[in-house]
Design a protein that fits this description.
113 residues; 6 strands; OB fold (Dihydrolipoamide Acetyltransferase, E2P)
Length: 113
């Protein structure tokens, strides 16, 4: 499942590469929703870690991510795994979402089927 959040970048960690060749990089985004601000940790893995190269602390961003969960020794853990970042003020030039604002709502009896 895909989710997104918008907030201010608080922290960007250095990349970590493990003996297995697995690479991850984490960032913290502060979200100002609700009564108290929330610091949300999001990790970017493998080739997606390079997405953080162009992001700076203090920048407003929208992050698209998936939620991953696993069990280890009877305990359950969740991770937010990012896969896309864009400036919160920039629109996505590849957004192909159809616009339905001017669509007619009454087709009458002229429907051809």
């Amino acid at each position: 499942m895909a989710y997104e959040l918008t907030g201010k970048v608080k922290l960007i960690q250095d990349p970590q590469t493990f003996n297995s060749g697995f690479t991850k990089r984490e960032m913290v985004v502060t979200v100002e929703e609700g009564k108290y601000p929330q610091d949300i940790n999001i990790e970017f893995v493998q080739d997606k870690a390079s997405l953080l190269d162009s992001v700076q602390p203090g920048q407003q961003v929208t992050v698209m991510f998936d939620i991953r969960g696993r069990e280890y020794n009877g305990r359950y853990f969740n991770n937010l795994v990012g896969w896309k970042i864009q400036s919160a003020s920039a629109s996505d030039p590849y957004d192909q979402t159809p616009q339905y604002d001017n669509m007619p709502t009454d087709y009458g009896d002229d429907v051809p089927f």
